[in-house]
Amino acid sequence: MSNTLTPVRIGRYTIPNRLVMAPMTRSRASDDGVVGDLTVTYYAQRATAGLIISEGVFPSALGKGYVHTPGIETAEQVAAWKKVTDAVHARGGRIFMQMMHSGRISHPALLNGATPVAPSAIPPAGQAWTSAGQVDFVTPRALSTEEVAGVIDEYRQATRRAIEAGFDGVELHGASGYLPEQFLSSGSNQRQDQYGGSVENRARFMLDTLDAMIAEAGADRVGLKISPEMNYNSITDADPQQTYRHLVEQLRGKGLAYLHVALFGTQTDYHGMLRPLFGGTYLIGSGLTQQSAEAILAEGKAEATVFGAAFLANPDLPERFRQDAALNQPDRSTFFAPPTAQGYIDYPALDTAEVA
Ligand SMILES: Cc1cc2nc3c(=O)[nH]c(=O)nc-3n(C[C@H](O)[C@H](O)[C@H](O)COP(=O)(O)O)c2cc1C
């Protein structure tokens, strides 16, 4: 008896299986952040996922962090996404948009010469991906308190546009060291105002942003992704357990559609700690197999499971699980690429594999 292939309620929706497609940046959009026909096909091919979470999408131009990533700011971007949501819905699927503001994980070459923004002027180590290849990160500019309110309002406006573009909901990217986690974490936030200092203040940006998104979409269409102790993009925190405990306690009353927790290599049992604190629909992702997902659900550790690379390489992942079929292996060399079909829409489904 399979647990992954049974329906479950997520916010406003009853989804037909518990296999959620993880948000995955694929860098196939135009220089203007507009998705094209390949992206329509890519998501439509994966419409049998219980729920698709889109790749990270910048709510405003200053939030862009990688070359060829898409936005949801201009009318052209909205119209292009509408084709994606129409195609997913035509095949019976559901899709949320992931809102991703990269903050300091960017570069002037991606921002028409502007300096990336962050809670504090602390540069991350490493390099940005630009059209001129990889270049060292720069020292970001600290947002003023008034500007922080403006950025939060950009998430609100982007949420309205995502709903207008036909998305079934939105996910705040609070993971992987991007802007919300830069505010949350003590190593990247040395602010003196109400958005820095105490854990209450550092969590405020994420909580206020969620409230702004909820104001447009309703709490039952808003999710949050976090990745405690992932330590990616130079994120550090003096006391991550206290930080995440506080954050998730504050989420409890909001009635979010879900909390999506992806753990990478930490020894701490964050799932055991955060799930009871949250009290709502809990999604576990990262490094799962069919077997481990079945076990997670059988043990009642989550309501649904999230798959990244496996969905990237297997457009019909639920059907493959149903049949116990072999899986296509993901090709890392085409994860991020200029707008090409290769490694994007050419992974075969079972029926086409048989024909081939
Ligand atoms: C190509 C690729 C792009 C990704 N881009 C994003 C992204 O835009 N936003 C995000 O939250 N996570 C992103 N991730 C992380 C995935 O959402 C997921 O957490 C991770 O792949 C672990 O799940 P998996 O082991 O099932 O692949 C990306 C992962 C991959 C493989």
Automatic annotation (TrEMBL):
<dbReference type="InterPro" id="IPR001155">
    <property type="entry name" value="OxRdtase_FMN_N"/>
</dbReference>
<feature type="domain" description="NADH:flavin oxidoreductase/NADH oxidase N-terminal">
    <location>
        <begin position="6"/>
        <end position="327"/>
    </location>
</feature>
<dbReference type="InterPro" id="IPR013785">
    <property type="entry name" value="Aldolase_TIM"/>
</dbReference>
<dbReference type="Pfam" id="PF00724">
    <property type="entry name" value="Oxidored_FMN"/>
</dbReference>
<dbReference type="InterPro" id="IPR045247">
    <property type="entry name" value="Oye-like"/>
</dbReference>
<protein>
    <submittedName>
        <fullName>Alkene reductase</fullName>
    </submittedName>
</protein>
